[in-house]
Amino acid sequence: MPKYLDFESFAGDEQYLNDLKAAKDSSDTDDSEKEELQNWINSVESRVISRKQEIYSKLTPFQAVQVARHIERPSTNDYIKLLCGDDFFELHGDREFGDDKAIVGGIGKIGNYSLMIIGHQKGHDTDENINRNFGMAHPEGYRKSLRLMHMAEHFKLPIITFIDTPGAFPGIGAEERGQSNAIAESLAEMSEIKVPIICFITGEGGSGGALALGLGDRIFMFEFSVYSVISAEGCAAILWDDPSKVEIAADSLKLRAKDLLEAGIIDGILPEPLGAAHRNYEAVAEEIRKCIFKELPCLNEISADELLIQRYKKFRSIGKYSIQGESNA
Q1: Cα separations (Å) of 308 from 2, 74, 194, 261, 302?
Q2: C-alpha 48: how far from its chain's center?
Q3: Could you tell me if 277 and 287 are in contact, meaning their C-beta atoms sit under 8 angstroms apart?
Q4: β-strand 88-90 against 103-110: which pairing, if any?
Q5: What is the distance between the alpha carbons of residues 112 and 323, in angstroms, rounded to a whole number?
Q6: Alpha carbon distance 153, 145 (integer Å)
Q7: What are the Cα distances from residue 39, in Å, to 20, 21, 42, 45, 193?
Q8: In Å, how far are 191, 228, 310, 312, 316 from 327, measured between CA atoms?
Q9: Do the Cβ atoms of 77 and 122 come closer than 8 Å?
Q10: Are β-strands 113-120 and 103-110 bridged in parallel, bridged antiparallel, or unpaired?
Q11: Which pLDDT belongs to residue 134?
């Protein structure tokens, strides 16, 4: 049974709709009953669609956060399976400490493109989330990611990243092994990787843990994904010491795709099916495929040196600042 969020008031009707469809398909149902059921199905389905459209057209920022965190939302491995099929070979380890299961990566093929694909990996149930540390990477995860990016550069493979994490893991062990340094190295070295990098924020893009995979030539967000420097809960705790202000925090953070597009932080928004990505994996995977096929030919025509210059300018142009007379305003 699908997992519904508190604000999804169509849940009862949708479950009733599924029961009607099951009854219609039953071999015990005669033709007259099937016709009557079909009329009910059409009526209820129309009501469900209308309610979904109404709800998802008016999501609050914190409701968008809840959608982005949905446990059934597609993960990196889901996208890899749909986009690459059997044409993917996973690579493991950072060659220093171990293999972090919160980040997966390897060489895959999408259409005629051979690519290095790297992404955060959450789980679809409690056991898998524990195994994947809820998508929160340790330093070895970011070092693995960076190792694979350098491998991609060596073999001239474009890089695709999937971003979906609450943030880098904040535990003592991670700090002892150099968490902040691993993220800083990721940012510094991604800025100089001489192959195209396309980043997709597929769910929750949280803080430096997300940014460590997010320094690319093109950055896209799904319609109901979020991207921010801190979680809404963390923001509410720090600014007001009041968990009840989480919705105010979410609104203030401007963490939705449309806000980030307006700020020039991302390059585009990918649409999601009615009811969000977790309701149709194939549809959202196809949006990624189309985006890759559109962007990669253009990026592949740019020389390596020019690619780095454009990447530098892209990130220097974000925000407004003035340093020793230099301004980007």
Answers
A1: 44, 31, 7, 22, 10
A2: 26
A3: no
A4: antiparallel
A5: 45
A6: 12
A7: 10, 11, 5, 10, 58
A8: 21, 24, 17, 15, 10
A9: no
A10: antiparallel
A11: 94
Q: Which amino acid is at 224?
A: F
Is residue 206 within 8 Å of residue 69, measured between CB atoms?
A: no
Residues forming a β-bridge with 162: 119, 200
Instruction: Give the residues of the chain that fall short of pLDDT 70.
Output: 1, 26-32, 320-329
Shortest CA distance to 135 belongs to which of 91, 171, 178, 104? 104
Distance between CA 240 and CA 33 in Å, rounded? 59
Place of tokens 């928004």: 269
The CA R_g of the chain, rounded to the nearest whole Å, is 22
Give the pLDDT of residue 36. Answer: 75
Q: Give the model's pLDDT for residue 27.
A: 59
Q: What per-residue confidence (pLDDT) applies to 19?
A: 77
Tell me the angle at which helices 246-253 and 232-240 cross, rounded to the nearest 10 degrees. Answer: 110
Q: Tell me the β-bridge partners of 106.
A: 90, 117
Torsion, Cα 284 276 256 197, to 10 degrees, reads -10
Does the global pTM surpass 0.85?
Answer: yes
Report H helices in 138-280.
139-154, 172-176, 179-190, 207-211, 232-240, 246-253, 257-262
Q: What pairs with residue 159 in β-bridges?
A: 116, 197
Q: Angle at which helices 61-68 and 232-240 pack, to 10 degrees?
A: 130
What integer pLDDT is reported at residue 10 of this predicted model?
A: 84
